[in-house]
Design a protein that fits this description.
The complex is a heterodimer of chains A (261) and B (338). With 261 residues, chain A is of the alpha/beta class. Chain A has a domain at 15-104 and 180-259: P-loop containing nucleotide triphosphate hydrolases (Rossmann fold). Helices cover 34% and strands 23% of the residues of chain A. Chain A has a six-stranded mixed β-sheet with strand order 6-7-8-3-9-10, with helices on both faces. A four-stranded antiparallel β-sheet of chain A has the order 2-1-4-5, with helices on one face. In chain A, a hairpin with a 2-residue loop joins strand 1 and strand 2. The longest helix of chain A has 16 residues, at 194-209. Chain A starts with 21 loop residues before the first strand and ends with a helix. Chain B is 76% helix and 1% strand. Chain B starts with a helix and ends in a 13-residue tail after the last helix. Chain B has a domain at 17-244. In chain B, strands 1-2 form a two-stranded antiparallel ribbon. The chains are: A alpha/beta (261), B mainly alpha (338).
C-alpha cells in the first residue's frame, strides 16, 4: 500500500485485492453518550504485523473487545477468514483462531506457569475433557513454548509469583497454545524494561515468521515502527490513516490528532 | 524423584488405612451414640466435598446448597410415599433418583443464577434456597406443608440401627471424593480453576465458562441432593425448615473454608473437625445453639489466621521447611492439592 490516505470507506484498507484475514466493517459502539467506536472499518492482511495506534481514548481496546466478543457491538460486522463471527462469544472466537492478550498482562495467579499454558489447549470430546490435564505431549509443547520465551525456569512457579515481564511472556505463550492464526496484543510493550522489550519484539517477529498474524495496540512508537508492516491510526473511534509506518508517521492528519485539535 | 515416590506411597497407604478404618468403624465402635456421630460426620464429609466441587474449584460461593439438600430429601420421601415403597433396604435404591431430580433442578437454577457473579451469585443462591423452603411449606397438597413428611420407619433396630445409613453416607462421600479427585486433576478441572482465578481471561483462552460452571454446579448439587435423601430416611421425619436449613448450607461452606478451599482433603478435614465438635457441644451443653457461637468463632479464626484453610497452610509450611533444609533448596515451590 502506498502512502497513507483517509480511510472512511469499507474497503479503504484492502489493498491490491488481497483477501484480508480479519475484516471489520462499519463497526460502532457507544457507551451511554460516549461514542467509543464510530463507523470503523479496517482490515488485517494475513501474515502481517499490523499496528493499531491512536491517542488515549481513541477506541483501540474497545475494537479489541468487539472483535473478540467481550462486548456487543451496536452496528457493523466482523469477519474472520471471510466468515462472519458476529454474535459469537469469546471462547468460540478463540476456538476459531483469534487469540488476544490484555492490557495489563492477565494470567492465572494460582496456577503454575505450565498450568497457565495448558488451560488454552483445545481438546475434542468429553472423555478427553475429563482425563488428566497434563498429557505428556501437551506438556512438552508447553515447555517448548516456555523455552522459546526463555521462562522455562519458572515453569512450576505460581503465576502470581512471576515478575511483570515474565507474566507478559507467559500470557503471550499461553495464547499461542491453541495455535491461533491471528493474535491481538493489547500493549505488549507496556510497562516492560528495554531488554525485555527487545525479547518480546523479537519473539513476536519470530512467531510471525511461522505464519501467525498480529494486530497490536501500542503506545511505544519506536516499538511499533520497528515491528509493524502496516499501521492503522484510530482517532475518536475511527481510522484516520493507514499504511506503512514511515508514511503514517509523517501524515499531517495523524500529527494533528496526536498533538493538536 | 525417589522422595516424591515415597511421599506418594505414603499418601496412598494413608488413604487406604483411613478408608479401612471408615469401613470397620461400626464394628469397632457399635454403640449408637458413636455411630450417630459417625453418620453425621460422614454426611458432612460428603456435603463439604460436593460443595467444594463448585465453591472451591470455581470460586462461586453458594450459600443455598441446603436447598438442594432439602429438595433431595423431599424427593426421596415423596417417591417412597407415592410408590408405596416399604421400609428396608429398597429406599436406598431410590437415592440416585432423588439425585437425578436434584440435577434437573440445579440445571434450571444454575441456568439463571450463573448469569451473576461474586456477591450477586451468593445472594441469588440464598434467595433460591428460601424460595424452595417457602414452596415446601406452601405446596401443602404435594409436600404436606408445615405438617412435614414421614419416611417409612426401618424394621431394624438396636445397635444396628445406624449402620446401613452410615454405609450409605460412606458410599456417597466416597463417590463425591472420587468425582472431586477426578475433576481436580482433569482438563475440565483446570478450566474450573482458571475460572476461579480470572473468569474473563479463561473465556479469552477458549474455556467455555458457562458450560463448565453449570456442569460443576449440577454435579455438586446432585451429590448434595442424594445425601439429603439418605438423611431424610435416617431421621424418618422432615419438615421444610428442618431440611432446607440455612445452617446446613453454612456448615458445609465453613468446613471447606476451615480445611482448605479447592483442595481434595480440606473438606474432609474440615468436616472431621467441625461436625464431631458440634455434636459434642450439643451433647454436653444440651440442645442449645451454643455451637453457633463456636461456628462464629471458628469462622473468625479461619478468616483472620488461616484465610486459605488448614491444608494449603500446612502444605506451604512443609514446603518452606523443605526449601530451607532439603538439597534442592532452589526448587521452585508448587502448590499441589493433597
Amino acid at each position: 500500500m502506498e502512502g497513507s490516505h483517509r480511510a472512511f470507506g469499507v474497503r479503504a484498507i484492502q489493498g491490491g485485492g488481497a483477501v484480508s484475514l480479519l475484516q471489520i466493517d462499519n463497526l460502532s459502539k457507544r457507551f451511554g453518550g460516549v461514542v467509543a467506536v464510530d463507523d470503523c472499518s479496517l482490515a488485517v492482511a494475513p501474515g502481517s504485523i499490523t499496528g493499531l495506534i491512536g491517542p488515549n481514548g481513541s477506541g483501540k481496546t474497545t475494537v479489541f473487545n468487539l472483535v473478540t466478543g467481550f462486548i456487543r457491538k451496536d452496528t457493523g460486522s466482523v469477519s474472520f477468514n471471510s466468515k462472519s463471527i458476529d454474535g459469537l462469544g469469546p471462547d468460540r472466537i478463540y476456538g476459531l483462531g483469534i487469540g488476544r492478550t490484555f492490557q495489563l498482562a492477565r494470567i492465572f495467579p494460582r496456577l503454575t506457569a505450565v498450568e497457565n499454558m495448558l488451560v488454552p489447549v483445545r481438546r475434542k470430546g468429553l472423555r478427553a475433557l475429563f482425563s488428566r490435564a497434563d498429557w505428556g505431549h501437551e506438556k512438552a509443547r508447553a515447555m517448548e513454548m516456555l523455552e522459546f520465551l526463555e521462562i522455562s525456569h519458572v515453569a512450576n512457579s505460581l503465576g502470581g509469583a512471576l515478575s511483570y515481564g515474565q507474566r507478559k511472556l507467559l500470557e503471550l505463550g499461553a495464547v499461542m497454545m491453541a495455535e491461533p492464526q491471528l493474535v491481538l496484543l493489547d500493549e505488549p510493550a507496556g510497562g516492560v524494561n528495554p531488554a525485555l522489550l527487545e525479547r518480546i519484539g523479537d519473539r513476536i517477529r519470530r512467531l510471525n515468521d511461522r505464519g501467525i498474524t498480529f494486530l497490536l495496540v501500542e503506545h511505544n512508537m519506536s516499538f511499533v515502527m520497528n515491528l509493524c508492516s502496516e499501521v492503522v491510526v484510530l482517532y475518536r473511534g475511527r481510522p484516520i490513516a493507514t499504511g506503512a509506518p514511515e508514511a503514517v508517521r509523517k501524515d499531517p492528519t495523524v500529527l494533528d490528532a496526536y498533538l493538536g485539535a | 524423584m525417589r522422595l516424591l515416590r515415597q511421599a506418594n506411597n505414603l499418601k496412598v497407604s494413608g488413604i487406604v488405612v483411613l478408608f479401612a478404618i471408615a469401613l470397620a468403624l461400626p464394628a469397632i465402635s457399635p454403640d449408637p451414640a458413636t455411630t450417630n456421630i459417625a453418620v453425621f460426620t460422614m454426611m458432612y464429609i460428603g456435603l463439604a466435598t460436593a460443595w467444594n466441587i463448585m465453591g472451591g474449584y470455581t470460586g462461586y460461593i453458594s450459600l443455598g446448597h441446603a436447598g438442594f439438600f432439602g429438595f433431595g430429601s423431599y424427593t426421596l420421601g415423596l417417591l417412597l410415599a407415592h410408590l408405596g415403597i416399604k421400609a428396608g433396604y429398597t429406599p436406598f435404591l431410590f437415592v440416585p433418583l432423588a439425585g437425578l431430580a436434584t440435577a434437573v433442578l440445579a440445571l434450571a437454577i444454575g441456568w439463571f443464577a450463573l448469569r451473576t457473579r461474586a456477591a450477586t451469585f451468593v445472594i441469588v443462591t440464598i434467595a433460591f434456597m428460601f424460595m424452595l423452603q417457602l414452596l415446601a411449606e406452601n405446596l401443602v397438597g404435594l409436600t404436606g406443608g408445615g405438617g412435614g413428611l414421614s419416611f417409612p420407619v426401618p424394621p431394624w433396630g438396636g445397635d444396628y440401627f445406624n449402620t446401613p445409613y452410615y454405609y450409605a453416607m460412606l458410599a456417597l462421600a466416597t463417590l463425591g471424593l472420587a468425582i472431586s479427585w477426578r475433576i481436580r486433576r482433569s482438563k475440565f478441572g483446570l478450566g474450573l480453576l482458571a475460572i476461579r482465578d480470572d473468569e474473563d481471561k479463561a473465556l479469552a483462552v477458549g474455556v467455555p465458562t458457562r458450560a463448565f460452571k453449570l456442569t460443576a454446579f449440577v454435579v455438586s448439587a446432585t451429590l448434595v441432593g442424594m445425601i439429603g435423601g439418605v438423611y431424610g430416611y435416617y431421621v424418618t421425619y422432615i419438615y421444610p425448615q428442618f431440611v432446607v436449613d440455612p445452617l446446613i448450607g453454612i456448615s458445609m461452606v465453613l468446613m471447606v473454608f476451615l480445611g482448605g478451599l479447592g483442595t481434595i482433603s480440606g473438606p474432609v478435614l474440615g468436616a472431621l473437625i467441625l461436625e464431631p465438635a458440634q455434636l459434642w457441644l450439643a451433647y454436653n451443653f444440651g440442645a442449645s445453639r451454643l455451637y453457633l457461637v463456636m461456628y462464629a468463632a471458628v469462622f473468625l479464626g479461619v478468616i483472620l489466621l488461616l484465610p486459605r484453610g488448614i491444608v494449603p497452610s500446612l502444605v506451604e509450611l512443609v514446603e518452606r521447611w523443605r526449601a530451607r533444609t532439603g538439597p534442592s533448596a532452589s526448587a521452585p515451590s508448587k502448590a499441589v492439592a493433597p
